[in-house]
Specification:
Strand 2 and strand 3 (79-85) form a beta hairpin. 33% of the residues lie in helices and 27% in strands. The longest helix has 22 residues, at 4-25. The chain has 3 helices and 7 strands, in the order H-H-E-E-E-E-E-E-E-H. It has 142 residues and is of the alpha+beta class.
Length: 142
């Protein structure tokens, strides 16, 4: 029992360190409409994909989330979805090809845009201009 104050002190230090570390480990929402956050998010997705040649089928950008559907680099018919949310990139998530009668819309049938051709750094300015042009009081972009 002589060591009880020392044991309690060490335990308290571990608890405080653990709480401090977990504070930084909790994913936070990132405002993708500010600064270069959207470009940084895309860089994390690009890192997750693992190749420089990324063919985009669709990109959907919200204030706190980007979802991008691409052609699978390993199989040109497959579609994969990647997401950036709460500070982290996730994916790939396979996307089911859409069928219209005898036509199946595999990735090779879509118009593809190289990721490098999309200026994600322009998003904050585009959002600002959209709000300005709307001329609506308290306008927001989702």
């Amino acid at each position: 029992m002589k060591n009880m104050p020392e044991i309690c002190s060490v335990f308290l230090i571990f608890v405080l360190v653990g709480l401090g570390c977990s504070r930084f480990a909790i994913p936070r929402d990132v405002d993708l409409f500010e600064g270069d956050n959207a470009a940084k998010a895309i860089a994390k997705i690009k890192e997750k994909v693992g190749t420089d040649s990324i063919k985009v089928i669709e990109a959907e950008i919200h204030k706190n989330k980007i979802t991008i559907t691409i052609q699978d680099a390993g199989n040109s018919k497959n579609l994969d979805k990647y997401t950036f949310e709460k500070g982290a990139a996730s994916g790939p998530e396979p996307v089911q090809a859409v069928s219209f009668g005898n036509l199946t819309m595999t990735a090779d049938k879509y118009h593809l845009t190289d990721l490098s051709e999309i200026n994600f750094a322009a998003i904050p300015d585009t959002v600002r201009k959209a709000i300005e042009l709307s001329k609506l009081e308290n306008a927001q972009v989702d």
